[in-house]
Amino acid sequence: MKTTIKTTIYFFVMVSFVMVANGCSEDSDAAFEIDLSQDDTVGLQDTITISQKDADALLFMLEEEKLARDTYEYLDTTWGLNQFANIKKSEQTHMDAIENLLKQSNTTYTILEYGVFSNSDLQAFYDTFKVDGAKSVVDALQIGATIEDLDIKDLEDYVLETNNAQIINVYQSLQCGSRNHLRSFMKGLDKNGGTYTPQFITLDEFNSIVNSSNEQCN
Fold first, then answer.
1. Domain presence at residue 218
2. Domain range holding 147?
3. Fewer CB in 10 Å around end: N or C, the chain?
4. Do 99 and 111 form a contact (C-beta atoms < 8 A)?
5. What is the pTM of this model?
6. pLDDT the model gives residue 1
7. Which of 90, 73, 75, 79 is nearest to 37 (CA)?
8. Are 116 and 131 a contacting pair, CB within 8 Å?
């Protein structure tokens, strides 16, 4: 799955760490971004120009972030874990950021209803995640880890495919958030006796991420 964008400077997101009372529960340790994209000072009236390849990739990325949001919404309803409740908010901010770029570039787009995707691969992912995620808490958390694993890999590829500084900044911010999400899901798996083996990023990169502290993303 590949994605590139061309855009003017864009104020993205800051990561806050969501903690419940006393701040000790691993389940409460999911990070989510505070979205600045709806601030009137950002200047959505500024028009940007992107290539057709960029537009196609941007439309795909909107749906990939929607896959994460919709899946976590379903899993939150099913299991009521803080990871899903918090991280689905983060995925909405990622969608908002991409949607703003589509607006700025005058690219036509449609956000379909929850659980429905125009991309057949993403639809297949969602349908599988919905069935498997209902089996157990461990299965649900493994799905969360899978989505973040995939997202990190895709974003790494996207960064390599562009020399545009604004693209790199936006996608590195998204990638930073995904690394924090992966850490949170892995803590939940550890607490519930589950494991996860990376399917998209390398084992070395995976270990480096999960064995390091949450990052401040901006």
1. no
2. 13-38+57-210
3. C
4. yes
5. 0.80
6. 53
7. 90
8. no
